[in-house]
Amino acid sequence: MSSSSTPLSTPEGPGSVSGAPHLPEGFTDTFTSRYVDTGELRLHAVIGGDGPPLLLVHGWPETWYAWRLLMPTLARDFQVVAVDQRGLGLSDKPRAGTTPAPSPVTLSR
Question: Where are the domains of the chain?
Fold first, then answer.
């Protein structure tokens, strides 16, 4: 994510931090769900912590939730950014006829 990325409304409900079950104690004090407009699509990311940014990219067909147990430890030294890849979780779905795999350019915004 770069400084030109614009956070949009805060997601709530299933798939977001506020709607996720079984989070580690104190998780919601450190992390929040955000939408980030990359210029191509809107990605959902869970962000928290202090320090240099650390991007966590899940496998398929997972979401940010796969990282939930590791994120609090990493947030002690990093600003953790756990993104839902395009087409998964609360991130925008690809248009018909496009590949669901995110481009490195999209994730770097």
Answer: 6-91
